[in-house]
Amino acid sequence: MHRQSSRLPSLGGSLGRSSNRPRSILCRGRCRGVDSVKVRGVVIAAGESSRFGAAKALLQLQGRTVLERVTAALADGGCEELFVVCGGSHRQVVEQEANRIGIRSIVNQDPSDGPVSSIRVAIQSAGEWDAILIQPVDVVGVQATDVSHLIEAFRNSCGDFDAWVISHQMRRGHPLLLTRKVVGRLLEEDPPAHLRALLALDDVRIQHVDSDNPLVLEDVDNPNDWERISPLLRN
What is the pLDDT of residue 32? Predict the structure, then answer.
């Protein structure tokens, strides 16, 4: 793990496809007051899924939808508050599924600006939180341990970092976690155009958190991806 200020791909594709290769560093240990910090978990599910042809959040495997699997990983991993951001042509069915599984949904009225617009909606929603964990719904193989390792790194950082990105075999994936202060820069008068631009700022300090889960690098973009990835998913 180390500070990384080079550019990242935009949210919505796997961060693991970047050519940047993070090195691991050791955390200093648990800091005072960390048990009181709150992490808001956000699942981005407002895309049109044009290359897939259906709402990816509603794909089913072993009796559970993708949305149910992903939100369970975030909740079990330690997110105290959990939202699903929906919008576009699949808004209604995603809202219905979120309601069925007991997860609050918030609406991105204009998702045409891409995932960054959903992040802006999520950080403007009322509530008390110290950091936000961002997870695209189509990175379906995220595990609770991936989430908990990110949150633990955040709590152990003692203010040394501003963003935490999961990685596998030196490649960046999802989820990622940002402090409230840093992600709030997306609401400035002249904000970064997308998440990649935010994380490329020289004063944003990034820590990479190693995972042994290769599926943090994989997003479901089309039916062939689903056929390839779904047999690899754990229960």
Answer: 52
